[in-house]
Each structure stands twice: as C-alpha cells, then as structure tokens.
Amino acid sequence: MSLLALDLGTTFIKGAVLDLDALRINHVRRQPFPPPLSGRPSLFYEVDPQVVVQTVRALIDELLVTAPHCTGVILCTQMHGLVLTAPDGQALSNCITWQDQRVLTAHPSGGTFFERLADQVSPQERLQLGNELQPSRPLCYLYWMAETGQLPAEPAYPVGLADFVIANLCQTTPAMESTGAGAHSAFNLATLDWHHALIERLGVDTLQWPALRPFGEVVGELSSAGRSLACYTPVGDHQCAVVGALLGDDELSLNISTGSQASTVTPTWQPGDYQTRPFFDGHFLNTVTGIPAGRALNHLVNLLNELARSQGVTLADPWPYIAAQATAIKETDLSVNLSFFDSVGGKQGAITHIREENLTVGHLFHAAFQNMAENYHAAAHRLSPALPWRGLVFSGGLAQKVDVLRDLAQHRFQLPYRLSPSSEDTLLGMLALGLVATGQVRSVAEATKTLRVRYNE
C-alpha cells in the first residue's frame, strides 16, 4: 500500500510516494513555491492560491505514474497561511502567508491594527491561544479585513493553505484538523475548539469557521487519471517535522534551518513562557520559535561576499570552508549576537570584543554558532527549567550539515545527541501519519516506535 505525500513549504512544494509496507520514502519531487503577487501594498504578502492548486495537481499526476497501488493523499502545510474559501472549495481571497505584516499599518483610530487587536485580548486568553498572538497570524489578517470592511459578504471559510487545496481539488466544504487550526491564533487550547468568545469580540464571527476533524479522517475524494484517492485531514508542518524526527519522550527537538525552534511534547496542556500548539494523540507541543539561525547567518555570508559580487565574481558554496574554519577554532573571545531582526534575542544584533587576531571567518562563525547554542539552552530553560531531557535530536538542513554547531550545542547542554534519521523530516513525519491514517497502527506514538526500529537498523 502507498500514499502520496505533499509538503506545501515556504520555498518548495515537495511531493513523494510513501511506501507503507517497506516504510520508505520514494520518488521525491520539488517545485518552487509560487512567488508573491506583485503590486500589493507594502507589508502585504499574498500568493495566487490557484497556482498552488495547479502545482499540487501536477505533482499528484506525476507521482501517480510511479505509484500503482496508491490509495490516498496526505498533506502538511506551512503554518499561519490563510485562504478564504467558499463552501464548494473555490477561493474567495488570495493566500495570505506568514510573511504578511499588514496589521502593523496604522489604524484610523490610532496605533496599529495589531495594537488595537492585542488590547482586546486578555493575558488568560493569550495563554489559551498558545501564546500565538503575533502579527503574522490568520486571526490578525481577518481582524484587518473586518476593520477595513473587506470581509466577503458571501459564506466564507477561513482555512489554511492545504485545507483550501484539498477542498478545491475535491470540490468539498473545507474542514480543518487541530494542528492546522492552532496556527490561526483563534484556537482555544483549554476547550480544543475555536475561541468563539474572542472571534465574536473581534468582529470576525460572520465567517463560517470550519468544522474541526480528527487527524486521519477522510475529508474528500480526489479523482486523477481515472483513480479515486482518499484525502486525509492536512496537518501543520512544524508538528509533522517533529514526528519525522522520531522524537522520544525524553528528547528535546532542535530544528535548525532558515529559522529554528526548540520543542518538546507533553501529554497535557501546560501553559508557560513559550508557545503551545496542538500535537497528535491528544498531546501538546511546547516550543520556542524565532531563534536566529540560517537567515541570520546568511547576513554574515552576504557581507563577506559583497566585494566579490561587486566585481562580478560568484563564489562557490562557502559553507564547507566556513564549517572547516569554525571547527578549527577551539575557543574564541569574539562575541556575536545573531539577533539581526526581531527574534528571541532582541531586535539588534552585535559583533563585539573584536581584536586583530580574532577577526577571521573561523572566529566569526565559531562565535555565531556559540550564540546559537546559548540561545537553544536558554529556550530549553523556558520550556522546562529542570532540563529533564536525556538527549537532543537535531533536524533541519543547517543542523544536518554543520558538525561544529551540533558539537557546541552538545557541550552547552552536556547531553548526547542524534540526528533526525532523514533530511526529509516532514516526509518521514507523513510516513508515520500515513500508518495511522490507514489503520496500520493505532497512534502516532506507535508509528514513531515502528519507524525508529526501521531507521535504526
């Protein structure tokens, strides 16, 4: 038996065939995620949702040729996207992605739209939303539409990108699963339902808030090349990646790529100084996000490349040299704060304690990696001051390729570590979820144990 997996990421839309019998990921394909629409106002970030649908449809058609025994489709999606969707699955808006910052514009009554919204949310309600109230959240986009009179008059469902794609392809009424709903910043962790009181207070209760369906439920049937495929409830890519890391109960997840997060799974809702997101099997994912990583490091790389670029010289991949030089440095007094943008470390980065001897690529990046290790340790303290974990699990492209970063984190935590068993962590997560959706195992925890045995062979 096999399923098709589709990951609607920020950079790429990935597809693959999940072999549920051999427990393998086959025929991985990638297509670029559509660029933002031009001509939109400053701070807007919108994508044509029909281009996403067309890309997904093309990947499905291509992959089905290689998967004669495929019975269904499972999707995960970038967090915090929004498409207003009609009851028949047609788009009523562009896709607004997590890069959108329109609520930071001025409100007619003073302040910004986000400040006006935030003033109406109590501290207890913030906890109920998982501490997820930020400008780049669907609830904020909807509030802006309500305040500016731009909510559609016809019935409209505010759903995530993958939920829209499934509804559109299957021509069915959209629904959502809790890991996706939690990304809207309108989901009440105390009741595991939409936060209806807040939705009404913010004036977005005229929308048709979608039914919440459990993971593994079929939400539509897709026809392709004369074949009928069951479409399962889409899930959030962050939770899916954590599943793909095959995280154990006593392990801390460090996902390090363009951005990075420190995460741990708990059996009960335990609000605190971190974000909480719905997870699988009735569990919760406590996480600290916005930890500077690849995006911040790329600013350093771009600085070092600027003179070469000015003379028309394109350097080859700089990362092997950077990693080798940083590894050769065993200790540095150079200090780097990677908070070059609004992040957990503040809004202003810094390079300090510069001397003639330490102003080198090796010292610079060793210090940057040290800063990252310190940030992960501080994030872990926020998640649980007792630091109860027995090991670290690294996932994400940057963690996979930079040994010295992992070694510095291990030294800071004084804990052993392992790498996620696959660089395609979301696809491996969907392989685990596929076992649950098709009834081959009873829970995500059981699926994780099954894959841990398979991938530790």
Describe this structure in a few short sentences.
By secondary structure, the chain is of the alpha/beta class.
- Approximate strand percentage: 15-25%
CATH superfamily of the largest domain: ATPase, nucleotide binding domain
Number of strands: 21
Q: Give start-end ranges of low-pLDDT stretches.
A: none
Q: What is the number of independent domains?
A: 2
Question: What is the CATH class designation of the largest domain?
Answer: Alpha Beta
Give the N-terminus to C-terminus distance in angstroms.
22 Å
The major pleated sheet works out as: 7 strands, mixed
What CATH calls the topology of the largest domain is Nucleotidyltransferase, domain 5
Percentage of helical residues? Answer: 25-40%
